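Weekly modeling sync, notes
Attendees: S.R. (lead), two postdocs, one rotation student

Agenda item 3: backlog of single-chain predictions. S.R. asked that every request posted to the team notebook include the full sequence so nobody has to chase files. The rotation student volunteered to paste the first one in as an example of the format we agreed on. Action items at the bottom.

Example entry:
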Amino acid sequence: MRIGVAGVGRIGAFHAETLRNLAGVDELVLADAYSGRAKEVATSLGADWTETVDELLAANLDGLVVAVATDAHADLILRGVDRDIPVFCEKPVAPDATGTLAVVDRVARSSVPVQIGFQRRFDAGYTAAREAVAAGRLGWVHTLRGGTLDAAPPPAAYIPVSGGIFRDCSVHDFDIVRWVTGREVVEVYAAGANRGEDFFREADDVDTAVAVLTFDDGAFATISATRYNAAGYDVRLDVLGSQDSISVGLDDRLPLRSAEPGVGFPTGTPYPGFMERFEAAYRRELSAFADIVAGRAEVTCSVHDALAAFRIAEACDRSRREHRPVRIEGGN
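Predicted structure, as returned to the notebook:
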């Protein structure tokens, strides 16, 4: 297979390295808005590179990985689809609902597979939780508790283009609770606050937020997010059922210390960020995309899934601003 990677910043370069080591990938071609960076990464991996993304799309690709800035996602997805090239794209599909819907409509009228990058679906813990729910081992699920707590804020320049904490950060939690439970969210109530750097407030965003989600079967989820969790990167999901409960992320690298006397757990070094926490999941995700390109597998995280998670995020942002519950009419 000949795979192209558009965008070789931190995550794009990691994806390129993963693809370079997959047995089924014979050729790798890289491109970036800064051609010098594409050349540098390509040279380190023994890959090819092009001066522009236009040249990359014309390079007779079997598959395309999109890891460019958010505002270019939709355009590259559609250009790949128009060329009958299977596409993997980091979330989100587009910066807004209108752009996302346009991509969903175009992909629906095509037979070209498009996979969206929600890597938690490829994490061993989340997979085990989903299997436990599906098998009925937890009984009926009544409560989920999840969250994404960043060890430190992203650069100030990123916040105004991030889409806000719900679309940028919590959207992963929104996707994974849908996936683990197999249920749809029908109502949200959310709140947020700023106690950190002024650049969050200046961008009309918040640095800490919480949301209560109501599912179509009456179950609830509480989702928390913050940019200030200096103890370490903390991403977990508790799934509580009538017969049993299960937790994802409850391992020795949990950045949380017990106040109970004599309790030593956890003792490991906390994860500093998402790349370290989900390294194995990212690699499985790209391996799955290679299988899709080869015709050995089908898409398991579609543009429709991305739209559903985005709608929950938008509803949470609206709820935060208007201080009221927001219904998601017709589910997702």
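Discussion: group reviewed the output briefly. The CA atoms of residues 253 and 268 lie 5 Å apart.
Action items: rotation student to repeat for the remaining queue; S.R. to check formatting next week.
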